[in-house]
Amino acid sequence: MTGISRREFSLLLGCSLLSPSLLANGKQSLFASAAKASNGAYELLVIDQAGRLHLRHELPARAHHIAAHPHKPLLAAVGRRPEIFIDVVNYKTKQLETRIRSAQGQHFYGHAIYSADGRWLISTENEIATGQGLIVIRDALHNYAVVQQFSSAGIGPHELKMMADGNTLVVANGGILTHPDQGRAKLNIDVMRPSLAYIDIKTGQLKEQVFMPEEYHQLSIRHFDINQTGRVVIGLQYQGDKTDDVPLVAFHTQGQPLALVRAPISTNMAMKQYCGSARFDKSGKVAAISAPRGNLITFWHADTQQFITSTTSRDGCGLAQTEKPEEFLISTGRGYCYRYNCQTQSKHKIKLNIPVQTAWDNHMSKILA
Amino acid sequence: MSLLSITRYSALSLVFLLNAPIAAAEISQERWLKLNQAAVNEHILPSYNALAEKSKTLAMASASLCAAPSEENLRNAEAHFIDTLNAWQGIQHVQFGPIELLMRNFTIQFWPDKKNLTSKQLNIILKNQDPASLEPEFFRTASIAVKGLPAMERILFADDALKQIEENPYRCQFLQSVSDYLVIQTDNTNKEWQEYKQEFSTLISEEGIYENAQEASIDIMKAQVEPLEVIRDLKILRPLGNKGKAKARRLESWRSKNALQNIQMNIQSLHHLYSGLKDYNLFQLLKEEGANDLADSIEQQFITIETTLGKIPTPLSLHLKEPKVKEQLLLIAQELKQLHESLDKTMPALGLQLGFNSRDGD
Asked: Residue A39 and residue B234: Cβ atoms within 8 Å?
């Protein structure tokens, strides 16, 4: 089944502007994440703010990010590199709706998003033969048939997000070449060229692209978030010498150069050259960047780009905004979730009601249920 | 193991086997607690206490040197510096607890210092001779590069150190101020551990840092395993250079000629943590779990590395370019890698995971 034509797709995209937050006003937040249970099983879990379990779905392999449908109770758990599955699960009926397989010769990179109207599922993928990054669009109304795919404008595309216009897709091209035959080995560290690309989702045309400056070309752009004003915050991962002292956070606004920033030197060193996740708070004024290798979560001002503070969190990586400004939910590989308020610097452990000890994976997604 | 704990253990593992199909053994929280207690009481607390005590003696020696600069007082201060450095090397692997607070670990020793920030910033301070830079207030906000062991090392082990101190007494005054600041850092770390040790004394905790004893053990296991990579990559391979061009100035503590001894202290301490704790240790735990060969092999690997290290001539900085020394160091790097792999193997056997996002993230 082909679903719809590419031309129809372009026309349909015009009506994707409805904001999901308007649809779900006043309802409770749920949080979804990939996880690994202590018996080794990979799962998709959904909890609420009180730590109650709402869904436990076993996945075929390890997933990375969970994309939430803006108004249906659907979650897309995206297999991490080099997996070839996305499980679309209904968290109300607890049923697997569809198991998407990537096309022959392609694999997923762990990230996907729904368009604002929920019609399309958009993912980053690898064209294995060429190593070039792809953006692939699937139709959620036609069993996730592929309707369009185009270049991500780089190698190793990872996280992707939509600007508030509903039309401009932002993609982090991590720059790292991998091939499934060689597992997760990095094949082009010497020549990698990470970038942030702004792409017109209707045409696939590149609207703007900012690259890492040459001296920092080994700083992989992996994870980012966008706030209400279109400001992008990026968490970086360094592939160069272990002793290099490099910036690990960047900010970007369309039309401007990339701004690389760093925490005070001791904190920057403690971050161990690796950021795992980047999320804005509800107000969009404060960004949290996790550094799981350094057991740290760092906080930054969106406007001034200044480092605010950090908090220790062992193997802490997943981040989500809560309903309160300056408050984040933090999940850890040790199996815990916390609410951390950046203003009061208070941390509250959420009492999880989950039958087995579970390692929370890279990302936590907030769902407006 | 007492009969009671055997019974309890068997009962637990039976329940466990029925419930979850895992190959790894279920080790009771009681046994993790026993391991934690031994590590804290016999290893961590005495090491931090030694570091605090050595720092105090060093501060006194620095004061004596400044009061009466002489060859004898300089040698005395240098000797106490080495004692303090060795004490630090014996606990450098612990990267959790009070040492994390305010980045004390980096404050005590900012290294590696690729851009030579310590020298650059220290030289400015020594040139300006601002009395305010000698005050505790200054140290609260000063760069971490100038308030720990590397700054002191540069003053004490400089060429003509004594002459320079005599000509510019400010050098010694600053040395003394850094030394006093180090005492505050190490003394506070030591004191705070008297409270922090409670975190390692509970089986299950609602409010503590660790949910249970096993989780607390993970931090101790990380301290056991992860430094091996740091020693290999930063203390050995980096000075050896990647194109066969050895660079002695990349060695840790090359000025005080303590690079090799630093590594020896690190290994000795990790070995002690592995099998030297009298009450209980990882070696014993592995044996109880039936991992006899692995336990013995790790013990043997520690001994082999110590033996190989013992054959290397000192000071390492003066011998680094000798082909035979390079060969020995490469051998040690290889042995450290094997030891790391062997210790990694024990983790699934013990049902532990040292890191999920931190070790295998994307």
From this structure: no
- pLDDT for res B242: 81
Residue A23 lies inside a defined structural domain of this protein: no
Residue A1 has a pLDDT of 40
For position A10, what pLDDT does the model report?
61
Pick from A310, A268, A312: which is nearest to B97 by CA? A312
- Optimal mutation site among A295, A298, A307, A319, interface B, most CBs of chain B within 10 A: A295
- pTM metric for this prediction: 0.89
**A1 falls within a domain:** no
CA of A111 to nearest chain B CA: how many angstroms apart?
11
Structure tokens at B276: 């030297």
B362 vs A64, A315, A332: nearest CB: A64
Q: How many distinct structural domains can be found in chain A? A: 1
pLDDT mean across residues, chain B: 92
pLDDT value at B216 more than 90: yes
Smallest Cα–Cα separation from B99: which of B192, B231, B228? B192
* Residue segments in chain A with a per-residue pLDDT below the cut of 50: 1-2, 14-25
Domain that holds residue A341: 6-18+28-368
- Enumerate the residues of chain A whose CB falls inside 8 A of the CB of residue B16: none
pLDDT at B244 (0 to 100): 76
With contact defined as beta carbons under 8 Å apart, do A94 and A72 qualify? no
Q: How far is A63 from chain B (nearest CA, A)?
A: 10
Count of C-beta atoms within a 10 Å radius of residue B101: 14
Amino acid residing at A317: C
* CB-based contact, A152 to chain B, within 8 Å: no
Residue B82 corresponds to which tokens in the numbers above? 């080495």
Strand partners, A358: A37
ipTM above 0.95, yes or no: no
Q: Are A75 and A98 in contact (CB under 8 A)?
A: no
pLDDT digits (tens, 9 = 90+) for A103-125: 999 999 999 999 999 999 999 99
Rounded to the nearest angstrom, the gap between the alpha carbon of residue B27 and the centroid of all alpha carbons in its chain is 28
